[in-house]
TrEMBL record:
Residues 242-267 are annotated as: Disordered. Its main location: membrane. Keywords: Membrane, Transmembrane, Transmembrane helix. InterPro entries: Bact_OuterMem_StrucFunc, OMP_bac, OmpA-like, OmpA-like_sf. The chain crosses the membrane at residues 12-31. Pfam families: OmpA (PF00691). The lineage of its organism: Bacteria, Pseudomonadati, Pseudomonadota, Gammaproteobacteria, Enterobacterales. Residues 123-241 form the OmpA-like domain. This is Outer membrane porin F. CDD domains: OmpA_C-like. The keyword Lipoprotein does not apply.
Length: 267
């Protein structure tokens, strides 16, 4: 009898050891699953606590839930790790809760379109008045001797902006007949054009010549001072790219610069 008791004693210890191992494994599985449940529950709690209108924090919380869902989906396909096993792994239930939370996400509205680009207005034409100089004798359309000195600076400015259209317009006061004034203003504009064409080697196609007579006064014709101001020739550089091409000149790359330069001569 004592011998049989001693023979059975090792088997009892084996059973006890197995039970202890099972209990330990179950305990560890419980701890790991509780940790997993607690982490996902914390992510869900943070998700529902953040208003949907706080776009940046909500996006961060969404990213955390998406990572949780990817992990649970991978374990569903490949099997959960052994430390979560022994029938205690709540993966499907956790995945369903996470996916339901993700489905409630409302993305932020698209940003408003940028305001339309406001292009800066072209600078107002710059007019230079040379009241003390005269280009023509009264009633004449031939340039006076020495009057070309004031045209030199204008020619330099024109040559500095190759490719722009050069508009030469003549004006008179209201003295005399309108038809004669219009013809005289045109002839004077042509005289200035011809001088610039011949002196500056500027193609005639670069010019537009106009004669307005007394139709565009800049001062009152009832005074001698006003009439003197109205008798003039205007030269305007119009920013029209490639309107003409000067010899050995490269076309302008843009219309940037000082704006439209106008030189006006009194006579």
């Amino acid at each position: 009898m004592p011998c049989r008791f001693r023979a059975e004693k090792p088997g009892v210890w084996v059973v006890i050891s197995l039970l202890l191992c099972i209990i330990s494994a179950l305990g560890l599985s419980v701890l790991h699953n509780q940790s997993l449940i607690g982490r996902i529950a914390s992510d869900l709690q943070r998700w529902y606590a953040i208003p949907m209108t706080l776009y940046a924090p909500k996006a961060q919380s969404l990213h955390a839930l998406q990572q949780d869902a990817l992990l649970l989906e991978r374990w569903q396909r490949q099997g959960e790790p052994q430390r979560y096993g022994l029938g205690l792994y709540p993966g499907e239930r956790l995945w369903l809760s996470v996916q339901q939370a993700i489905d409630t996400y409302i993305p932020p509205p698209p940003p408003p379109p940028p305001p339309p680009e406001v292009k800066p207005e072209a600078p107002a034409p710059k007019i230079v008045r040379l009241d003390s100089m005269s280009l023509f004798d009264s009633g004449k359309a031939e340039l006076k001797a020495g009057s070309t000195k004031m045209l030199v600076n204008s020619l330099v400015g024109i040559k500095a902006k190759p490719g722009w259209l050069i508009v030469v317009s003549g004006h008179t006061d209201n003295t005399g007949k309108a038809q004669l004034n219009q013809r005289l203003s045109l002839q004077r504009a042509e005289a200035v054009r011809n001088w610039m064409r011949d002196t500056g080697d500027v193609p005639e196609s670069c010019f537009a010549v106009q004669g307005y007579g007394a139709s565009r006064p800049v001062a009152d014709n009832d005074t001698s001072e006003g009439r003197a101001l109205n008798r003039r020739v205007e030269i305007s550089l119009v920013p029209q790219a490639d309107a003409c091409r000067l010899p050995d000149a490269t076309p302008p790359s843009s219309l940037e610069g000082d704006g439209v330069d106008n030189n006006e001569w009194r006579k």
